[in-house]
Amino acid sequence: MKSLPQSCEDCFKEYQAALEDLNNFAHRADFAKLTDSQSRELIMSFEVTHELALKVIQKYFEKQGKGPFSGSRDATIEAFHADLIDDGKVWLDMVIDRIQYNPVYPIDTQGKFLENIQKRYIPALGKFEETIDKILN
Which is an annotated Pfam family here (predicted)? Predict the structure, then answer.
């Protein structure tokens, strides 16, 4: 049996739940003393939240008759132009940091990535939630 495609509103609810989980984890975490396991968990929570944000953007544009996009960077740029996000640089940095952070390779980007998640990305994801909530309601 085939399942129905998710609506923008359904994707947004999933995004809100993931953002709440990310915020809860970040608020109780001591970023200066994260274990490797906690660091990986925080990064994974961020990545899930970011993916869901991109899914909301995709569904929003599908509803508008736009897209598909060739990747997260193109969707991010279009979202900036449509005023869904207000700081395109931060959102593009999210994409770049996710590409650069790869625990398989020896380049140590985890510390900077965790700092960006805490200080730049979580606030930007929160602003995105507020913007989409206003648009959908």
Answer: NTase_sub_bind
